[in-house]
Write a structure and sequence with these properties.
Blueprint: H1 6-9, E1 14-22, H2 24-28, H3 31-44, H4 48-52, E2 55-61, E3 77-83, H5 86-93, E4 99-100, E5 103-104, E6 109-116
Antiparallel strand pairs: 1-3, 1-6, 2-3, 4-5
Length: 124
C-alpha cells in the first residue's frame, strides 16, 4: 500500500500550464476586431501576480512553427506559472470569459489549464 499523500507531492507548491489556442472566429475577424482582441488579451492576462497571486515563470508563443487554428493540442501559446491554489487557476482561466469589444474572448481564443507540481528533476 502506498502511503503517499497529496501534500507530499504538492509540498513545493502548485504549478499551472495555461494552454491558449485560437478559434476560427479570430481568423475571420477584421483587422480592427483583431486589434480589439489583442488589447483585451493583454488586459485579461496583465499582472496575474498582483491580481491572483499567480507568478509567471515563462511563456511560449508557438506561432513561428504553427499557422492557423490551434484550438486543441498543440496549442499556440502557453503560460507556465506557480499558483497559490486551485481557485487562482480558475480565476486566470475565467479571463477568456471577459469581453473583447462586443463579444467574449472565448469567441476568439480557447484555454485549457493543467495543474500539477514542480518536477523533482530537470531543474537546472
Amino acid at each position: 500500500m502506498n502511503d503517499l499523500k497529496l501534500e507530499d507531492l504538492t509540498g513545493n507548491g502548485l504549478r499551472a500550464l495555461f494552454c491558449i489556442g485560437i478559434n476560427d472566429d479570430f481568423f475571420r475577424a477584421s483587422g480592427e476586431e483583431k486589434k480589439v482582441v489583442g488589447g483585451a488579451l493583454k488586459e485579461a492576462f496583465d499582472d496575474l501576480e498582483g491580481r491572483f497571486g499567480v507568478k509567471v515563470l515563462g511563456t511560449l508563443d508557438d506561432d513561428l512553427l504553427q499557422c492557423g487554428v490551434g484550438h486543441d493540442y498543440p496549442y499556440i501559446s502557453y503560460i507556465l506559472a506557480d499558483i497559490p491554489d486551485f481557485e487562482a487557476a480558475v480565476a486566470v482561466t475565467n479571463q477568456v470569459r471577459e469581453k473583447a469589444g462586443e463579444s467574449l474572448l472565448s469567441r476568439y481564443v480557447t484555454i485549457q489549464t493543467r495543474i500539477g507540481h514542480p518536477l523533482f528533476f530537470g531543474t537546472k
